[in-house]
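Exercise 7 asks you to align residues with tokens for two separate proteins.
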Amino acid sequence: MNILEVERLSLSFGGIRALDDVSLVAPQGAITAVIGPNGAGKTSLFNAISGFYRPERGAIRFEGRDIGRVPASRRAGLGLARTFQNVSLFRGMTVLDNIKLGGHSGLRAGALSAMWYLGRAREEEMRLRAEIEREVIDFLEIDHIRGLSIGALAYGLQKRVELARALAMRPKVLLLDEPVAGMNREETEDMARFILDIQEERGITVMLVEHDMGLVMDISNHVVVLNFGRVIASGTPAEVRASPQVIEAYLGAKAARKARHEA
């Protein structure tokens, strides 16, 4: 079953076509990587799926339902969570408070009880905190920084906190936009391990945009390649790695011909 389907999606900014008739699927419970050179349309695709951009044409189906006109906030409630290419956290707040913000999208208390922190609102808040501590903080091994301000953390830990906030939303599909960008080798290996555990232990479908080809080929089940807003290849990591169109997109036509000749 494909939990997420994108069909013939097109998106333009002025005269620039960011996405051009893009179709792809994300199989349920799998890790799907979206790769391509800079400017290929990868982040634009994620922004369309998560509701930040409205495409001119095409359909986005989540669990069989067309969500093309569903606002971004409601898509989060349906089970779509994401992280961003640049860390998007509240720097003056603690790690725990940042993570709790992700869980608030699922709270059901009324406005009055939430305002006065009474009854159901208090119970939900306490239950949310316990769940975050048990299911997210321990899972991502960040208990030692839970009370620290975001501004006091190294970049790699900030990326991990952003992942924690997305997990607190209890997602069915997790969109990760360059999850290891700017990380050193040790941090990258840790993040790869967490992504695999999210898929294998929690059954969460993962879609990721990433430039680290070593990471992509190691952990992905399915890879989609974009170039100039169009899908030029899709398949297993081995199939995509061997695609002449992919080699040409990354190396250029001349270098690709030379590589094939030398092989």
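Second protein for Exercise 7:
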Amino acid sequence: MKNKKIVVLICLALAIVLVSQASAEVKKIKSLGQYTFVRVRGQIPTAEVMKMLVDRYSADIKAGFDQAGMSEVYQPFIDQLKTAEFEDTAWNIGETVQWMLFRSQGKVKVSGPLEWAGKKPIEAFAVKVKVGFKTYTFMIPKPCGNIAYVGMTEAIPEAICSLKVSPAKANINDPITVDMSGSQYAKSLKIEVLDKQGNKVATKELTPDSPRWQTKLDKPGEYVFKGTAINMADKPSANPCEARVYINYPPIASVVPSCTECKNYYGRPITFDASGSSDSDGEVTKVAFELKDDNGQVVDSYVDSEKPFTWEKTLYKEGTFTVAATAYDNDGAVSAPTGDSSKSFTVTRKKLFGLIEFGPMLAHGGDEYDLSDYVAYLYVRPGLFTWLNPDKISLTFTAGAGLPLKGSPWKTIIMAELLANFHLGKAYFGVGPGFTTKEVDMRKAGADAVGQLGFTVFDNYLKMGQIFFEFRAPIGRTFDSHKMGIGFRFNF
């Protein structure tokens, strides 16, 4: 029982202490002027006089703000007071200020909370000082000049979003720059990138200290960049904040060679046609051609900036080649490789030719027939020509008749020969066996050793013209039956 009484007494004592402390937190005052901060004589001063007095006592004001724990507000107070609007107000009965600067025994002091409990309101000036988003309200009672702190309100402004995106039109994987540096009152920034269907393709968080972002888009079409600015109260901006970017559709390249099995096209022009290249949202402005051999080595290239975008190329090499076309549009976009933009073709060279050769020939007569030394013949020999190693070694086979320009005892002869020809540029020499029937009855038909010296007059790789000198020496027969002549050979 005794212990219970002790507990009750302790609780009552604590209650009394708390009540007394609470009542001591706010001091009620009924008069002003005993502890004035600055003295103002005469009538109630104007705002200009008060500004002058406050400026004069700036060091004392700083000491008071330091004591009140509001050192950070001192300098804005002094700076803004010079242009601040002094509003006429009143300290009404029952209203409280947080603290008040006053002077006691020549020293600047700061009171605790004060409540006006006088018989009537006190006329005063009200001054507002802004520091960031905070507004501090001070009251200066007239005419004592004490500075009283009424309170602070914080008004967080709505964030204003600003979004700039450049360029507005770009190609695939070109850099896109996003700039939100113009946003205001933002704690953080956010960007969303949406495609034409509304699908989100990218997001990015930014800050006012780092408000720029560079990105790339790898698909063509229209995109919307939506920005949001978040204020200090985590509230998103409400103003419209978006930009549109169009990613250019690249052109599509197409190339068609004039032949794919280019038989006997060595030395003949082949046309590569890229006129079928197209661009869905612009136009093709140029096409770049590239020709590679079967080892992947670039043989040649060409750029055509005029429609219909074709390239004529003559190849002096056999094999399989690949021609690729790359199209460029009016916005600088480049086509991607496709099956239509690259085609292979094979070039072969004509190696087997038909031929016909003709010309005059002299056949040696000899003294045994009491004839002149030589008899003229005209001959025609059809045959075949083939390259064993193009432009270096060839083989010719011909067989034909020689008609004498004199009568008996000279007879029409039949000649044949197989020559291996060695080419040195346009000149060549040929050697090989031949056969000739007898020119007169007293001679024998037989084998010949044939030699030729020739020169290629023209060669377009499909047809050739050659002139030559030929000497035929009999084998196993009298040398008197040798022959020599000149001729023209046409290979076709």
